[in-house]
Amino acid sequence: MKSSTKLVLFFLLLSSFNLFYVTGKEFQLDWEVPKSRTQQVYNQWASENRFNVNDTLNFKYKKDSVMVVSEEEYEKCHSSHPLYFSNNGDSTVFELDRPGLFFFISGVAGHCQRGQKMIIKVLEHASPSQSQTQNATTKGSSSKKNAAIGMLPISSPAILLLIISVFGFLSL
Where are the domains of the chain? Predict the structure, then answer.
């Protein structure tokens, strides 16, 4: 086999690695004041979903804002110095960039007190079996509840084995 053909095959194989890259899921939610003050609409929704590092939340709203605050500010429903603030018109996309708890409240006066707040628990990186189960569950859900945009993960040893095989092929 000509060396130029081997080189082309090598680059094609190398460029296909991005197919195995694990991306997060995007969860969409309508960010509005709940109809009843006693409803825990957003925390109920959050408890029905599993969030991992690199997942994103897409808040859809009209004339509102999204703030990430400390636990204390979440309890008080007020923050003069939020960790994150956005009011991009009609939607905000927020990436869950670490494991742990995220506390969200509306930045509009009175909305948080009326139930427009949410706690998200982000898990450590999921194992392949968790991701596959989660993808199957998410695909059956309505896009309003959440939407999956992930791919199956591949292990590091499998990638290493593939690279070694390619170099073995190139040396033929």
Answer: 23-141
Phi (first) and psi of residue 165, to 5 degrees: -65, -40
Residue found by looking up tokens 């999204």 in the block:
66
Contact 73, 106 (CB under 8 A): no
pLDDT in tens, 120-144: 999 986 555 454 444 443 333 333 3
Q: What is the mean pLDDT of residues 19-26?
A: 67
pLDDT band at 88 (very low <50, low <70, confident <90, very high): confident
SS3 88: coil
What's the rounded Cα separation, in Å, for the pair 121 and 111? Answer: 22
Of the options 2.60.40.420, 3.90.700.10, 1.10.418.10, 3.40.50.1820, the CATH number for the domain spanning 23-141: 2.60.40.420
Residues 137, 146: Cα–Cα separation, whole Å: 10
